[in-house]
Design goal:
Elements lengths: L2 H21 L3 E4 L7 H9 L16 E5 L2 E7 L4 H4 L3 E5 H14 L3 E5 L2 E3 L1 H7 E5 L11 E5 L6 H5 L3 H5 L1
Helix pairs in contact: 4-5
């Protein structure tokens, strides 16, 4: 699956998630790679350090969300139709590493959010049950962790009900 095949559904989910958070009374702005030009994306995708490691800037979260007394960095995650029926969700190992660093180094709460709910890096660290190398998978081809969806916290539990739902 190419980047463009993954980008369109991923971007649609980011917009839907941001709109859903706003409908719950949260402030939201885009963050991370969404702010970069195509040229910058290419440079980050192609660059490697002297050990062959990529720039982890590529895995910065997609959104910053806030409300009185709360703030989250959010990495919006999507699944293919085929994988939506799976009992698991997947997180690239590099995205997981960046998420943990954001919490540890930047002291900012981090969430990975799918339609089925969200997880913190700590939940993933404690609950992943399988690591795959990404070879032949439908994603970017990098290694990833599988986590049972039952550990996801619902978006309503995390962010509250939509304003129009609670006012009805």
């Amino acid at each position: 699956m190419t980047f463009q095949d993954r980008f369109q559904p991923g971007r649609a989910w980011e917009v839907e998630l941001a709109d859903g958070l706003r409908a719950r009374g949260w402030g939201v702005c885009e963050f991370g790679q969404g702010q970069l030009s195509d040229e910058a994306h290419g440079a980050l995708r192609d660059w490697r350090d002297s050990y062959g490691r990529p720039s982890l800037v590529r895995w910065l979260p997609d959104l910053l969300a806030w409300r009185t007394g709360a703030v989250y960095m959010i990495d919006a995650k999507t699944e293919t139709e085929k994988n939506a029926a799976s009992p698991n969700v997947a997180v690239e190992c590099d995205a997981f590493g960046v998420g943990g660093s954001i919490e540890q180094v930047l002291n900012t709460p981090m969430l990975f959010a799918w339609r089925c709910g969200a997880m913190t890096p700590r939940t993933i660290e404690n609950r992943w049950h399988r690591k795959l190398d990404g070879n032949g998978a439908n994603g970017s081809g990098t290694s990833f962790l599988l986590i049972d969806k039952k550990y996801a916290t619902s978006l309503t539990d995390l962010f509250g009900s939509r304003v129009e739902e609670s006012d009805a």
